[in-house]
Design goal:
This protein has 415 residues and is mostly beta strands. The protein has 2 domains: 44 residues, no CATH class; 370 residues, Carbohydrate-selective porin OprB (Porin, Beta Barrel), CATH 2.40.160.180. It has 7 helices and 16 strands. It has a 16-stranded antiparallel beta barrel with strand order 1-2-3-4-5-6-7-8-9-10-11-12-13-14-15-16. A hairpin with a 2-residue loop joins strand 14 and strand 15. It is globular.
């Protein structure tokens, strides 16, 4: 907790003086507009994002080891609009860092495969992203190069931000199998996006591809502070084609996309001492606004479905995975900034993983199912509180265990 308490204590004396004439309950950031300096810098092309996310979870029943666990992530990002700053057409630069703290044993304590917290990970302080991006030729092409998030650009679920479970907020677990870099452990890479029909009825169509360093499939251990620009390999690639439709909330917008990850390295086989070369993963994801809750469409209900497939069972825990979610933005007229959602995760485990589990004495079910029910209350523009319930059936793929019931709460402060 010291990593959390000390930064907040240092900031506390400035909380009152940093604001302009805004009320603390209505201003966008806890520390206000810095007497107008923050807005002035944004007009010039310099923006800052400072936030702290803190999760606490406890099992209600069914865990292998009962008891609460917490995890937190403080993040700071500097974004530069280089077109405004130096006249470089369509160019941006971003550099960010994180400090993670807490107990990284959610899944092991509960004995489940899914991760109920989207921020849990290694206890570390490091750079996260460092990249340069430029859009050229009337939005025809965008390229990003530097330390980038591979899986977030190839498989993330656009409506997932309502939730807390990592497989709904970010990507299905299966997609981590190819070892692409991920947030907050970005690695060297390049992503190119083409939008060939910007002036036609197919305006929303795009194709994109990426190449990435996988840091020997361990994004953190050889790059402990995120400042290593060595290409360790092996090479991983990704590709995606998608279509975005609807330009305003009232149009009931949506999207559809499909893609592939491939890593050219070698992987440990689950049920043997052998290593196997290469791993390929496929995914498809679609979503749309289904209902408008007011005339302008700012309040609405969205749904999405994601399917993932890993054909090489001997190196993957998961063979097939599905996630589905339904969320409401502004579920109540009096609470237009709140969000509510229900999410579902179904993971079908590979035969090799099931065989290994059976050999270890586990009565395998061949699958694990998770349901999440959540409500994100925006107490002020800079403070969010999110109570959350998750239920995991066949935890860890075991047919013998009772479901695990997990209660959690998240708070997010934007400075």
């Amino acid at each position: 907790m010291k990593k959390l308490i000390l930064p907040l204590a240092c900031l506390a004396p400035f909380a009152g003086s940093a604001q302009s004439d805004e009320d603390i309950l209505t201003r966008e950031y806890l520390l206000g507009d810095w007497y107008g300096a923050r807005s002035d810098l944004a007009e010039e092309g310099v923006t800052f994002d400072f936030s702290n996310t803190f999760d606490y979870y406890d099992d209600l029943s069914g865990a292998l080891q009962s008891g609460g666990t917490y995890f937190g992530r403080a993040r700071a990002t500097l974004n530069l609009d280089l077109e405004k700053l130096v006249g470089l057409e369509g160019a941006k630069f971003s550099v960010g860092g994180i400090s993670q703290y807490g107990k990284n044993y959610n899944r092991t304590r509960f004995g489940i495969l899914t991760n109920p917290s989207s921020i849990e990970g290694v206890d570390t302080t490091r750079f996260a992203n460092i990249w340069f991006e430029q859009t050229l030729f009337d939005d025809f092409v965008t390229y990003r190069i530097g330390k980038v998030d591979g899986v977030g650009n190839f498989g993330a679920q656009p409506y997932g931000g309502t939730f807390m479970n990592d497989e709904l907020v970010y990507i299905p677990n299966l997609l981590f199998g190819a070892g692409l870099p991920y947030d907050p452990a970005q690695q060297l890479g390049a992503i190119v996006t083409l939008r060939p029909f910007e002036d036609s009825s197919l305006k929303g169509l795009y194709v994109k591809g990426g190449v990435f360093n996988t840091n020997n499939s361990n994004a953190i251990i050889y790059d402990d502070i995120g400042a290593d620009f060595t290409w360790d390999g092996p090479l991983a690639i990704a590709g995606e084609v998608g279509y975005n439709f609807g330009e305003s909330p009232a149009d009931k917008p949506g999207y559809i996309k499909a893609g592939i990850h491939h890593n050219f390295g070698t992987f440990d086989e689950i049920n043997s001492t052998n290593r196997s070369r290469g791993n390929t993963l496929f995914y498809a994801n679609a979503g749309q606004t289904l209902w408008l809750l007011n005339e302008t469409g700012e309040r609405h209900v969205d749904a999405s479905l994601s399917l993932s497939y890993a054909p090489k069972e001997r190196v993957n825990v998961y063979n097939f995975e599905m996630t589905a979610l339904l969320r409401a933005i502004g579920p109540f007229e009096a609470r237009p900034q709140d969000e509510a959602g229900v999410g579902f995760i179904a993971a079908w485990l590979s035969d090799d993983f099931n065989n290994a589990s059976s050999a270890a004495g586990v009565n395998t079910s061949g699958n694990e199912f998770t349901v999440e029910l959540t409500y994100k209350a925006r107490v002020t523009p800079w403070f969010v509180v999110q109570p959350d319930i998750q239920v995991v059936v066949n935890p860890g793929g075991s047919a013998s265990r009772d479901p695990v019931y997990i209660a959690g709460i998240r708070n997010v402060v934007t400075f």
